[in-house]
Amino acid sequence: MAPRTTPPKIAVIGLGPRGLGALESLAAQVRQADVSLSVDVFDALPACGAGPNFDPDESRFCLLNIPMRDIAIRPPGFTRVGGFADWLEDAPGPDVFPARADLGRYLEARWSDLTDLGLLALTLRAVRVEAVQRVSGGWVLQAEGQRYGPYAEVLLTPGQPEVRPDPQLTDWQAHSGHSSGRLMQAYPARDLAAAAADWAGQTVAIRGLALSAFDVLRALTTAQGGRFDGGRYHASGREPARVVPFSLDGKPPFPKPGTEALDARFAPLDEETAVFERAIGKAASGSAEEVAPLITSALVPVVARILPDAGAAQVEDWLATEWETPGAQEGGGPVETLQDGIAMAAGQAEPTIGYVVGQVWRKWQDPLRIGYNPAETPPETAQKIIDFDEGLKRYSYGPPLSASVELAALIEAGLVDLDLSADPGIEMVDKGWALTLNGRTEVARVMIDGVMPSPDPEAVTAEPVAGLVKDGRMSVLAEGLAARTAADGTLIGADGQAVPGLCLLGRLALGSVVASDSLHDCFGASGQRWAEGVIKRTG
To answer: The whole model's pTM is what?
Structure first.
């Protein structure tokens, strides 16, 4: 009788959506190859599969920035759970933006189904990993005084771990400790809403005017008992007296088209998408000088078809500016930008070239990842493409139209003030923070940080990432970019060599991958390539 063999053991550190997506891909590969794998999953958070961003206990006022019609997170063929809309009781209409907590409950159900099916021998370890160490038999994990392993493979899906605060935030943290000012983070929003119950009559500042600001505003208004009705805000009396959001350019992002019918106008034709797929594939492996001409040549015909009155020459001019100085084409102030965005998203005004470019780019996020992520992209080329994608997020990652309408109502009610939104001067004072712009000063007793930190692994203070950077097993692709990985997620160390059996997926690999902030990316091809690599390497 042949001796029994022990299935290879692997470890996955992190069980948010990306960790779940990777495990589902691995289960599909195991099922297809008819092999066995033993998997230890490490995550100290209780919301298995959801992670902190989609925590089922998070405030109901935190919404996805994806409407129901666009949520397609690819349930695997073996699952018994099905799609989100089918699973969700009393699913809202296609144009509704659901609560993040609802999606979190769905992801928990996907995890439960995966464990029940038994395709993988899964063990959940609710501990925080502190170190990943190489030993003769593979990899050993150190977690809360215990050693686990050895493992043939280790995958890290850390999301956005804690980082060293930037100089401004460092000063503010110290200031809040010895002044009457209070500094808070945007999330968890339920904690923010609870604290805001004591802020009636005070001025509150929000650092950042992107998607997080809309969640913060709900925590300060509707979570305090206020309500929107007929385009107006009806205060409860428990809100702050004034809310002052600010950012570098001071402009809110543009909302997505309000309905499926309006959104259909921006859909590229199949043949146009095929042209883009070829262009991004060539651009990703070429020189930085080739990037703009290749991507521009794919975008111009689509935008010119959607906006025939604009003409190809005007579209080319707009894109030429966007490649060099994103946003310089838009000269309106913050309130004008908000109103213009609402009108275009509601179909009440003809969209601008920028709005059309942004919506087309949103619909090309999957082809962008498919063409870029498997390529070995030179650092200068990566930086060019990443900068372009990040710049267009003011359109492609926009909020729901309803959120922008609510912001306009809060401005009309005098509760939100955008007069100080464009990079104000900020002085720390005894009562908090004094914001000054164009001769006007407003003192905020509370400062809320709603800025997502840079995905620079060298700034991460949380383990095990910080230790891997220190050991040279995780290296940065280039200044301004994140970790260097191969197409299957294998880390490339500081010596330029692959680190066998050690992989990373997600935001901390930005530059090696693109458009990694999307929920859809968590269940996409990157996880599939990793899973295929595991099967090949473990035999």
So the answer is: 0.94
